[in-house]
Amino acid sequence: MFLERNINNLALTGFMGVGKSTVGRHLADYLSFQFKDTDEIIEERNKTTISEIFDSHGESYFRELEKKLIAEMLDWKQCVISTGGGLVAFEDNMLQLKKNAFVVCLWAKPETIFNRIKRQSNRPLLQTDDPLETIRTMLEKRKSAYRTADLMINTDTRPMRQISQIIIRQFRQAQQQSGKQNHPTPLS
Ligand code: S3P
Predict the structure, then answer these.
(1) Closest to 93 in 3D by CA, of 76, 68, 126
(2) What is the mean pLDDT of residues 120-144?
(3) How far apart are CA 81 and CA 150, in angstroms?
(4) Which of 14, 120, 137, 177 could form a Cys-Cys staple with 106, CB 3.0–4.6 A?
(5) Shortest-distance Cα residue to atom 4 of ligand 1
(6) Which ligand 1 atom sits nearest the alpha carbon of residue 14?
(7) Beta-ladder partners of 36
(8) If you write DSSP's letter for every residue of 125-166 in order, what string do you get?
(9) Is the CB of residue 16 below 6 angstroms from any atom belonging to ligand 1?
(10) Contact yes or no for 4/99 (Cβ under 8 A)
(11) Domain limits of the chain?
(12) Distance in angstroms (rounded) separating the CA atoms of residues 34 and 78
């Protein structure tokens, strides 16, 4: 299938706790792009937390909010977009994202993710008796969706700088191919 694409933005996808926000802020800074975080936008607009949205309205309501936000992204330019961990695992969201962005998926082992998030309580889907097992099950279910990203990077052992360098190199190439190159200088 041929998808008409304009690589105007850089989107980071992947499971909770893989480092999308940290890497995303760094990339936005480097590229002089605006940083946007889909969870933060949803929280700001609804004047509440993701956990409260899940509690009061349920997951499918939250997925609707994500879907509406993706529709808006077609007008975005020069943004690094950090997406909620489930966003690309539902409906045709990955395809929508790809229309206007180079899509990177950050990956990590369940154990790494568990160690990164175990002291945090802001992820409603991981408030279970056995979060590690929940992570394993969810990752397995979402793996095929994550794999459709333009670039997949394992973050288990790589330092952030290296991850950013790989992404920037690939992003530039993708921009060149779509005829919309800009010229950020190399990471030093
Ligand atoms: C979710 C990931 C969260 C947030 C919500 C659901 C998921 O975002 O969107 O709790 O389904 O994986 P982060 O990946 O930024 O934690």
Answers:
(1) 68
(2) 95
(3) 15
(4) 14
(5) 84
(6) 14
(7) 81
(8) GG-SS-HHHHHHHHHHHHHHHHTTSSEEEE-SS--HHHHHHH
(9) yes
(10) yes
(11) 2-175
(12) 6
Does ligand 1 come within 6 angstroms of the Cβ of 124?
yes
Q: How far is the CA of 125 from the centre of ligand 1 (A)?
A: 8
Measure 164 CA to ligand 1 centroid, in angstroms.
21
Residue nearest to atom 9 of ligand 1 (CA): 84
Regarding pTM above 0.85, the answer is yes
Tokens of residue 160, six digits = 């952030």
CA of 184 relative to ligand 1 center, distance in Å: 30
The string of pLDDT tens digits covering residues 62-121 is 999 999 999 999 999 999 999 999 999 998 999 999 999 999 999 999 999 999 999 888
Q: Domain 2-175 sits in which CATH superfamily?
A: P-loop containing nucleotide triphosphate hydrolases (3.40.50.300)
Alpha carbons 79 and 96: distance in angstroms, whole number: 15
Counting from 1 in the atom list of ligand 1, the atom nearest the Cα of 21 is 15
Give the ligand 1 atom nearest the CA of 122.
10
